[in-house]
Design a protein that fits this description.
binds FE2/S2 (inorganic) cluster; Glutaredoxin; 9 helices; 189 residues; alpha+beta; 2 domains; four-stranded mixed β-sheet
C-alpha cells in the first residue's frame, strides 16, 4: 500500500465524524480489542499520522493482522476508535481489494496475473491450484482452509509466476512446487 494512497484520503470536518459514527454496541469502542502488541502498534499509528482519516488504512491492516479479515462489526469499531465517519471506512474497504469482509481462509493463495507473471504461466498455475483444491476463483474450500485469488502485480515481476500467501512470496512456481506447498500446509494444519 503506497503512501500516495494513504495521503489520498481527503480531510473532513471533525463534526461530521461524530455525526456519522455508527455504534454496534452501547460503546462501540469496546466491541473488540487488540492483543497488547497490536494495541501498541495502534497507538503508534495514531501518533504517526497528522489526521485520523489517514490512519484508517493502516488500522484496517492491523485488524486483518489480528483476525485475518474484517469480520462483522470491525469496520464500525475502527470508525469509533478513530472517531471518523463509518462511511469513510466503508469507502476504503469497498475500493481496495486487499481488505476482506469475508473470511479468506487460513491460506489465501494470491497469484499474480499481471503481464510478466502471465507470460511466465501464471494462468496455468491458477487453474492447477483451483483444480487441486476443488475451488473456483475467489472461493474458499469447504474446510475454510484454502482460497485462490488472482491479484495485480506484487512487485516480483522477474520471479514469475509467483504468488503471495500471508506475508510470504513464493516465486518461480511450477505445478510440482505448488503441490509440495499445499502438502506442507495440509501437514501444518
Ligand atoms: S507481474 Fe507478477 S509480480 Fe509483477
Amino acid at each position: 500500500m503506497s503512501e500516495e494512497h494513504q495521503d489520498a484520503v481527503p480531510e473532513v470536518d471533525a463534526s461530521d465524524a461524530a455525526a456519522d459514527a455508527v455504534a454496534v454496541t452501547d460503546d462501540p469502542t469496546k466491541a473488540f480489542s487488540f492483543s497488547p502488541e497490536r494495541e501498541k502498534k495502534y497507538e503508534e499509528i495514531v501518533r504517526r499520522y497528522p489526521t485520523r482519516l489517514s490512519a484508517i488504512m493502516p488500522m484496517l491492516w492491523l485488524c486483518q493482522d489480528e483476525w485475518g479479515w474484517l469480520k462483522p462489526g470491525v469496520p464500525e469499531w475502527v470508525a469509533a476508535r478513530l472517531e471518523v465517519p463509518i462511511s469513510r471506512v466503508y469507502e476504503i474497504i469497498s475500493f481496495y481489494t486487499m481488505y476482506y469482509t469475508e473470511n479468506p481462509g487460513t491460506y489465501n493463495l494470491q497469484v499474480c496475473r499481471n503481464i510478466s507473471c502471465h507470460m511466465a504461466g501464471s494462468g496455468k498455475i491458477t487453474k492447477h491450484l483451483c483444480k487441486k483444491l476443488g475451488v473456483g476463483l475467489n472461493e474458499t474450500d469447504s474446510e475454510g482452509r484454502f482460497r485462490v485469488e488472482e491479484v495485480e502485480c506484487l512487485g516480483a515481476c522477474g520471479m514469475g509466476p509467483m504468488m503471495q500467501v500471508g506475508k510470504d512470496f513464493y516465486e518461480h512456481l511450477t505445478e510440482e512446487k505448488v503441490d509440495e506447498l499445499i502438502e506442507q500446509w495440509r501437514r501444518d494444519g
